[in-house]
Amino acid sequence: MYLKRKIDDYLLEWKKNMDRLPLIIKGARQIGKTESINQFAMDNYKNVVNINFALEPKYKTILSDGYSVCLLYTSPSPRDGLLSRMPSSA
């Protein structure tokens, strides 16, 4: 069972904004950040990429190595155990 949170409305507004920037979610532990993001992704996108930099230290160097956002967006492959993120028609 999913409990609706204040962030849910914010995420929908963020998605509607055509000039949106990448989203970074920070906050206290155990308040539902990951659950909210996962629910938002399942409700709004056909495919989802989940990279947890805490659990996957090898990905921490992605940004420091100078990869562009476009490259990051298109690069993940099934070989990496990741799925591509494509907006749904919703």
3D structure, described in words:
The structure is a single chain. The protein has helices at 6-16, 33-44, 61-64, 69-74. 37% of the residues lie in helices and 0% in strands. The longest helix has 12 residues, at 33-44. With 90 residues, it is mostly helical. 1% of the residues are buried.
Helix/strand layout:
Blueprint: H1 6-16, H2 33-44, H3 61-64, H4 69-74
Helix pairs in contact: 1-2
**What Rg do the Cα atoms give?**
14 Å
Q: What's the mean pLDDT score? A: 77
Which range best describes the helical content: under 10%, 10-25%, 25-40%, 40-55%, 55-70% or over 70%? 25-40%
Beta-strand percentage range = under 5%
Let me know the number of strands. Answer: 0
- Structural class by helix and strand composition: mainly alpha
Net shape: globular
Low-confidence stretches: 82-86
Q: Termini separation (Å)?
A: 23 Å
What profile does the largest beta sheet have?
A: none
Number of helices, counting only DSSP H or I runs of 4 residues or more: 4
Order of helices and strands: HHHH
